[in-house]
Fold this protein.
Amino acid sequence: MSEQPGEFAHQPVLRVRNLVKTYPTAQGSTPVLRGIDLDVDEHQVVTLIGASGSGKSTLLRCVDLLEQVDDGQVWLDGQDITDPRVDADAVRRRIGVVFQAYNLFPHLSVLDNVTLAPRRVHGVPREQAEAQAMELLERIGLAARARAYPDQLSGGQAQRTAIVRALAVQPRLLLLDEVTSALDPELVGEVLALVREVAAGGMTIVMATHEMGFARSAADVVCFLEGGVLLEQGPPEQVLVDPQHERTRTFLRRVVEAGRL
Amino acid sequence: MSAPGTEVFGDARGGLLPAPSEVELGRRSYRRSRQRRSTWVALLSTLVFSTLLVVGTVSAPGWPRTQQSFLDPDVARRAFPLVLEGLWLNLRVLVVAAVCVLALGLAVALLRTVRGPVWAPVRFVMALYTDVFRGMPLIVLLYIIGFGVPGLRLQGVPTDKVVLGTTAIVLVYSAYVSEVFRAGIESVHPSQRAAARALGLTHRQTTRLVVLPQAVRNVTPPLLNDLVALQKDVGLISVLGAIDAVRQAQIVSANTGNFTPYIVAALLFVLLAVPTARLADWATARARRRQQAGSVL
């Protein structure tokens, strides 16, 4: 396993260097990520902003090894996870993912959705897994819905269940892929409140989002992506209030015009 | 417990809505009257249609002779207990075949989707198997297995006609059913697989715990449809000489020079298929309801 380049005073939870990803198309291949560099420290909340198609989701999918990268490297706690000799299942066990469309398992109850990975992947006995799951569901006010099926939940309830499902295996890193984009406006708040709570608990989070207000108040670092390039990154008050890059300014102006900031 | 009907008017918070308006009452009464009219039209048209059918058949020039050779009540009475006895064999074959077909079909479907270079020959053989046995006419395969296999005179290979016939049926139906299962597996959205893998489940765990349960649910209606087809095709083991319902009918028919026993057998097979067909309808309707809850069209 190759070591990280250079000497660093500390080791980030996630380190991405020169990440390239292309998708095959009829005309050949389209680059989606053109060399991304990113560091995420422990307990940090990093938000990825940018227009649809800028590569936010692809970056998250590459980090969780749901996509094979075409160049560059990704380290999780110092381990190069893009090495093909690495056990991808073992890597994914250390990373939690929440998708835009929840992706709950429709044939399993809320409780079974949450306990599936602890029981089957981590070998936690059923009683213990269910007790832990109920505790988590209690905390988000969904304990009464534990026996319900995903299609009986509201969007907000479903997404909160998906977040709890990802947290149930105590991941090292949580990836949130536009978790509020599929929700009705009045349901966005309850999901963001849960993300805020999880962040306050010390979880390291990378979050692709269109919620600029949330990025501004909850993020430690905001990254602006455009056309597969990480154009600008820094603290929210800098990137969102006083962006250095002309394109970032254009993007934010559009967001403001759309009434999203 | 609330009085019947009040629930309908209760809103989400459990409170009651005011009584329906004049307009709504008018709409309801109109819909009821249309419904009554539809019922009458359906009854009348059924009556006219069946009368025409009966009159048309009975007035055919060859009707008396046909009635004699196909609908002789005395022959039917003689044939009934024997055919019923034969049907018991069909039923036993059906149960064994259905269980084997489900197991083999699922196994073939899973082996076709298994990953890894080591499994390449297995995938190839399974694809070949489905191609060959889906294309082969069942009756030809029955002859090949029913007469060809015993002809080899191998030690330990069964020579019983029923066993050989069932084997041929299982081979053909498993090829069909494996494709149904494969379609079901592919109908599960890739995001489900992604979600399972993201939780750290392996490829096999994902297939077993996430994909298969949803796939089986999706393909239950077509599987029940295949069961209806299997139900009547078990009658084909008679070509090997197994004494089933069709064979019994054939024997009685030969003894009496009358075709009525076949009609008896046909009716029994139809009766056998009706519950399964209704079950298939019910499963299909339920699957549709799940997908389009609340739509009136």
In short: The two ends of chain B are 32 Å apart (CA to CA).
